[in-house]
């Protein structure tokens, strides 16, 4: 009986001891193993740390230290100072940049550069392609859109050594932050394959690139159809700025008002016969800088097409056409004070003469979304109105 009683008490004690040991082991195992939530947090932290390291490295690369560039003054096209009478049209009022209005100036011997910030890079959909357009986007050459749409006037029947025009400045509504709306001059050479060379300048509204909806003065270039070369503004090596009066990528002010005052900027791009560089001028004689001739293949010689006009990106949000506006957001049939325009369209010929853009052709990818309508008179020379609202009953 005693032996049986001892066995009776021994078994529960043994089971209790086994339970305590196993519980302790399990607790130790749980303590030594991180929870899935902690592991996910640590993984996210590592990814964010890597992203910020890449951002800091890119900021260091983009925001270069100040340098002083000395370059011989360019030889301008002949008769470039001849002005065209606006006939009291209220067009061409003085346009400034927002930083001018704040009273800021740059010291002599420096240039005005808009710095890239961490916020700029965090907004970018791709760090690798920051400050660059998607490959093959940007030039209107056929009837397909591939996500971008144009309303342009163009010439392509000669060899061109530059172009000049005045364009009024607006603040079109952008339907999706990843989209943009711009108005610019394109100087183009090469085929529309992988060897396309372009030089571009104008104004642009791009929330992703700049972080707001202000129209901004911008430049662009590429030598391989937007694949690996070129960029906006100073986001890569290329464009050499020579003025401290204008900051490329800075906001333009004031803007044109519907049924009110119109403000435009005059832009000229031309090839200096002496050194072969492509120069950019804004307004009445303010030279901004140049694209060195060594950047290019076909444009090292001349351009074979010039385009003037507007472009938008259409990502088809919610499956329908974007509501991103082009120009003023109104159709060209509304005319002056209401529609966006390009006026006094000119090109530079082989002998460095600035001449009217003859045989101008007008094209709109989707006229129900963005249209174009041209004309000619003694005040504006060759001109056109362009733009539109994007999505509407004629543009589903």
UniProtKB/TrEMBL annotation:
The keyword Signal applies. InterPro entries: Glutamic_endopeptidase, Neprosin, Neprosin_propep. Residues 142-396 form the Neprosin PEP catalytic domain. Residues 1-28 form the signal peptide. It comes from the Eukaryota. The keyword Endoplasmic reticulum does not apply. This is Neprosin PEP catalytic domain-containing protein. The gene is gb16960.
């Amino acid at each position: 009986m005693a032996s049986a009683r001892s066995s009776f008490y021994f078994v529960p004690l043994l089971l209790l001891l086994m339970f305590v040991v196993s519980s302790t082991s399990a607790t130790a195992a749980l303590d030594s193993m991180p929870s899935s939530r902690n592991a996910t947090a640590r993984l996210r932290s590592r990814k964010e740390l890597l992203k910020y390291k890449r951002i800091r490295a890119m900021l260091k690369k983009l925001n270069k230290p100040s340098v002083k560039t000395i370059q011989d003054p360019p030889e301008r096209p002949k008769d470039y100072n001849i002005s065209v009478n606006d006939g009291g049209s209220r067009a061409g009022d003085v346009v400034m940049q927002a930083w001018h209005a704040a009273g800021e100036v740059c010291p002599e011997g420096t240039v005005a550069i808009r710095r890239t910030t961490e916020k700029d890079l965090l907004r970018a959909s791709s760090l690798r392609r920051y400050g660059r357009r998607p490959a093959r986007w940007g030039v209107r050459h056929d009837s397909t859109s591939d996500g971008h749409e144009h309303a342009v006037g163009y010439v392509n029947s000669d060899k061109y050594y530059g172009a000049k025009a005045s364009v009024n400045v607006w603040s079109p509504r952008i339907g999706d932050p990843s989209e943009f709306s711009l108005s610019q001059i394109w100087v183009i050479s090469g085929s529309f394959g992988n060897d396309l060379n372009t030089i571009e300048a104008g104004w642009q509204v791009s929330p992703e690139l700049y972080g707001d909806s202000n129209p901004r003065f911008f430049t662009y270039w590429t030598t391989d159809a937007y694949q690996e070369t070129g960029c906006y503004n100073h986001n890569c090596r290329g464009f050499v700025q020579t003025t401290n009066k204008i900051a490329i990528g800075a906001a333009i002010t004031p803007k044109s008002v519907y049924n009110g005052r119109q403000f435009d900027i005059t832009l000229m791009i031309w090839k200096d016969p002496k050194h072969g560089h492509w120069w950019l001028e804004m307004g009445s004689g303010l030279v901004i800088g140049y694209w060195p001739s060594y950047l290019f293949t076909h444009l090292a010689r001349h351009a074979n097409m010039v385009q003037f006009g507007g472009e938008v990106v259409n990502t088809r949000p919610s499956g329908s056409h974007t509501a991103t506006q082009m120009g003023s957001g109104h159709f060209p049939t509304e005319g002056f004070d209401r529609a966006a325009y390009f006026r006094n369209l000119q090109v530079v010929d082989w002998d460095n003469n600035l001449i009217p853009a003859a045989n101008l052709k007008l094209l709109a990818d989707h006229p129900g979304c963005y249209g174009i309508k041209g004309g000619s008179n003694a005040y504006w020379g060759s001109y056109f109105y362009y733009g539109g609202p994007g999505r509407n009953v004629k543009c589903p």
